[in-house]
Amino acid sequence: MPPQIINRQWLLARRPEGQVLVDDFRRYDAPLPRPDLTAGEILVRNLMFGFDPAQRGWMDDVQGYMPPMAIDAPVRGSAAARVVASANPAYPEGAMVRGLFGWQDYAVAGRAGEADPVRIAPDILPEEALGVLGAASITAYVGMLDVGRLGAGDCVLVSGAAGAVGSVAVQIARLYGARVIGIAGGPEKCRWLIEDYGADAAIDYHNEDIRARLRALAPAGIDLFFDNVGGSTLEAGIAHIGRFGRIVLCGAIAGYNDERPAPGPRNLMRLISQRAEMRGFILLDHLDRLATATEQLRQWVRDGHIRYRTDIQHGFETIPQTFLRLFSGASRGKQLLRIDGAE
Amino acid sequence: MPPQIINRQWLLARRPEGQVLVDDFRRYDAPLPRPDLTAGEILVRNLMFGFDPAQRGWMDDVQGYMPPMAIDAPVRGSAAARVVASANPAYPEGAMVRGLFGWQDYAVAGRAGEADPVRIAPDILPEEALGVLGAASITAYVGMLDVGRLGAGDCVLVSGAAGAVGSVAVQIARLYGARVIGIAGGPEKCRWLIEDYGADAAIDYHNEDIRARLRALAPAGIDLFFDNVGGSTLEAGIAHIGRFGRIVLCGAIAGYNDERPAPGPRNLMRLISQRAEMRGFILLDHLDRLATATEQLRQWVRDGHIRYRTDIQHGFETIPQTFLRLFSGASRGKQLLRIDGAE
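The joint structure predicted for all components is written out below.
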């Protein structure tokens, strides 16, 4: 009998209350999923994980656009993986794929009723597939162009602008000829905004008053506000929204770890006087744009029009700590983790 | 020399701080505006005033879609009036007109740069011109159909549903085949909603828990929420907004008298998970719809499809008290005031 292969997992041990903690997760050694695959299924070996603030939301016992994560199941999360056994001709053995394979070494994917894994082309690196060509960038693409109806003359505001979604949103706005103001925390990230991502101005919310800066930078108001943050940042953006302005709600990292939701913006009535709209969206509704967006992003990256940063941590055992970097502001680019030794 | 005609006025004595008070206004006897009109101008005699919560907003020193009211000038407000002198062939002497003629007996209108007075057809009563065929109803029409994109199968929620805008919004929704839930304060207004305006259900926010009632009445969520109230009512509506739901922000009577804006809805992130939109609008942007809306409303009223209530107070001296009825919930229908003796 061959030696039993262990499938290392990180389980959701309990639902986080407020701030997510390392102790909300539990390491578990499961047996390798049985290789007798049903037609359509594949067995994948995860090589790299991508982390996203939305995962925190899925941990709450709230029915959103996805069911809440189950307790004592591997934490739901994106991974780039290699197909190691296949009962699906679309995903041959050896192919690279990405999907919500969870925090574990191995996963069975392709089950009926689950989202299909996405093939990763041979010339794409795992960190590109999970990063600049991944869901965050496509979210930025759809959010700016389809939901936000970006126009060339727009004055655009992006919060969380140094993050995975925000940095691509900034660059798309610039590529379309808009004037772009980015909000990020700390002088280092603000420097990236100007020097790497081509923002026209950066606001450091750690050290500057967002409203005062917006008054100076956008006296005629913001045409399109792409908000990844929520909370007081959203309120400041509403205070400076221009006439017929559009606010795209992409996320609310400021609030993901709040035990009780913080008060919302006090100035929503400005949406009336400015005839502005605010709209939430999620990528799942725009999957018809996936191919176009991916190809366009690939072209931009290849041509050097879109730059990106990845923050790659290492080692399966540090997955929870790596996830927490998203919320402490420690991440220095798209947060990834490589499982050392896997290939 | 003929006896001097007095032009009675109510001036804005000071900007209200929080709750508007009778003492925020001051009576003043001005001389009659000189009858030497410039070409285009008309002199009108006000007969009836219409009151609207938006007037409270115009009293604050905030640049909105209109400049703030001036201190020591007649309070800006709608009136139905008779033309008593004319230098404008579009408004012959004796014609009835409505416009923002202010809280005074006489006004000069038709000045360049001001909104044109609207002619009132001979078969329309002043209380109809200021009420069911006035700005409030046209606001409901545009808000439901153009901004809210009302559909026949929609589950519609209207707050402030017994008010001038809300009651027409409820009836338009019903005329278009939607299912309508109205929110109003007290059993009397809730009875109007069901018996007079044809709502499918009424929620009494004085005596019922809005969220619990919405859970029971609209388990699949609200498709279109027409909000006139803001505050906790808006928050409750967001909590029950359906997938791809639309929230139309028409007003926020709950907050007009707040000295400091109350915290906004804590659950805006539900706009993301539900892919919902929230949109503010004001009638001024939809003046191209005025003729169509007025004619349609007139037809509906004539055919008995739209019912309405007016609350007509009397006497120039009671104008401020009548205005305050809007905010105390005392108004029993569109709040109007007739200047006794004028005709």
